Amino acid sequence: MNISIVGTGYVGLVTGTCFADVGNQVLCVDNNQSKIDLLLDGKIPIYEPGLEELVSSNIAQQRLQFTTDINRAVAYADIIFIAVGTPPDEDGSADLSHVLAVAKAIGQTLTDYRVIVTKSTVPVGTAAKVRKAVQAELDARAVNVEFSVASNPEFLKEGAAIDDFMKPDRVVIGADDDRAVELLRSLYAPFNRNHERLIVMDIPSAELTKYAANAMLATKISFMNELSNLAERLDADIELVRQGIGSDPRIGYHFIYPGCGYGGSCFPKDVQALHRTARQHGYNARILDAVEAVNQDQKSVLLDKIDAHFDGDLSGKTFAIWGLAFKPNTDDMREAPSRVIIDGLLARGAKVKAYDPVATEEASHIYQQQQDVAFAGDLYSATADADGLIVVTEWKAFRSPDFTRLKSQLRTPVIFDGRNIYEPAMLAQAGFKYYGIGRSN
Ligand code: NAD
């Protein structure tokens, strides 16, 4: 099949590459010329494990192409995926301007039947808007072209995106005509071999499913963070509580890790957008409100502990930060808790020396005007002569450092562990003052 993917970000590039890898001809489009230039040059603009190799091999096999020309993409494919960004508007609702601009551009040159699929995370009702935008252009051109609109939200996780796409838990397809469903069913057939993974439903339900999934995961995190704050006040250890409840299969172990807040390009914006959708329909989604409020506060929990440890005087102190990305295995720093922590430290007159295995380049753009933020090339260059260590992202490489070396490097042997990756008793024995999340300190 010939497939076009409009929007070559995390989702579009992974989707396009994986479809190409199973034998389709794929054309990826982006209106960001420098991104496309980079890809044409064989480089990829993001860090995602395994992606660079997969992109290269599919380019070499002539199954994967890149362009900035949307008209070419419309002419090229049986199925056109819209995978552009849907960032939050000022009021928290999803900004659909990119999605609708693509729909408009499709309508301007459409001449034959196509299935137009929204892969971006979009509020209920967006597919209908896409259909209207395409039809308006056809009407303006006074042409009659048949087309289908479908919703196929994406559930991949950054950091494990290829595996998630190749072996999906489920593929949700929202459609209201059989022709679209059959085309999408055959496109996904290679990912659906062992057992049925396609869940076909009406379009509004498919659109809502994506928000429901992200809101549920964010709720689990905020719930545990809320409990961790309570555990601290009760002299309980949230890590033991986590194990105690996770062993119940009705609860399970996934997504109940306490920490210094969730970030990324999806959970914060999707929780806000769903909340906004609810309000637009006259419903006050109280749980979503609380999920967001708890998360905002949680991003500052480590700052409060640092303040308390140093009696509120951080001026002139330097802190090592391990982990900048919002989670391990990605360079994505959108809404990352590290940003709240760094900004808070700077506001208190402190300096930061940060290390992240892959997000340093991204972070150096964000903090390029900040003289008080420096970046280290490895773990121990960050901690040398620092007044304390703050762990913000749970990269594997941070789990078992050389504590003897760390202790000799730090001016004061204190560790603020925003992901509970260390054992408090072990660190106490090694001579550190340890602060975790939800553990009595
Ligand atoms: P991204 O910002 O990485 O990529 C979006 C791309 O779209 C950019 O390269 C941008 O230049 C391009 N673009 C914008 N307008 C365009 C236009 N008119 N024509 C062509 N290209 C255009 O975003 P992303 O993280 O890939 O997310 C895309 C969508 O998928 C969002 O709705 C997001 O919520 C959703 N999603 C993201 C993830 C994730 O983990 N990142 C997972 C599931 C779903």
Index terms:
eight-stranded mixed β-sheet, UDP-Glc/GDP-Man_DH_C, alpha/beta, elongated, six-stranded parallel β-sheet, 14 strands, UDP-glucose 6-dehydrogenase, 441 residues, single chain, N-(1-d-carboxylethyl)-l-norvaline Dehydrogenase, domain 2, Rossmann fold, binds nicotinamide-adenine-dinucleotide, 14% strand, 3 domains, 44% helix, NAD binding
In words, what does this structure look like?
One of its GO terms (biological process) is polysaccharide biosynthetic process. It catalyses: UDP-alpha-D-glucose + 2 NAD(+) + H2O = UDP-alpha-D-glucuronate + 2 NADH + 3 H(+). It is an enzyme of class 1 (oxidoreductase). One of its GO terms (molecular function) is UDP-glucose 6-dehydrogenase activity. The protein is of the alpha/beta class. The protein folds into 3 domains: 2-201, Rossmann fold (3-Layer(aba) Sandwich); 211-297, N-(1-d-carboxylethyl)-l-norvaline Dehydrogenase, domain 2 (Orthogonal Bundle); 299-435, Rossmann fold, CATH 3.40.50. The protein has 18 helices and 14 strands. It has an 8-stranded mixed β-sheet with strand order 3-2-1-4-5-6-7-8, with helices on both faces. A 6-stranded parallel β-sheet has the order 11-10-9-12-13-14. Helix 8 links the parallel strand 7 (171-175) and strand 8 (198-201). Helix 1 (10-21) crosses helix 3, helix 4 crosses helix 5 (97-109) and helix 11 (267-280) packs antiparallel against helix 12. The longest helix is centred in the middle third of the chain and has 32 residues, at 203-234. The protein is elongated. The relative contact order is 0.09. Bound molecules: nicotinamide-adenine-dinucleotide. Residues 6-12, 29-32, 35, 83-86, 98, 101-102, 120-121, 154, 156, 158, 265-266 line the site of nicotinamide-adenine-dinucleotide.
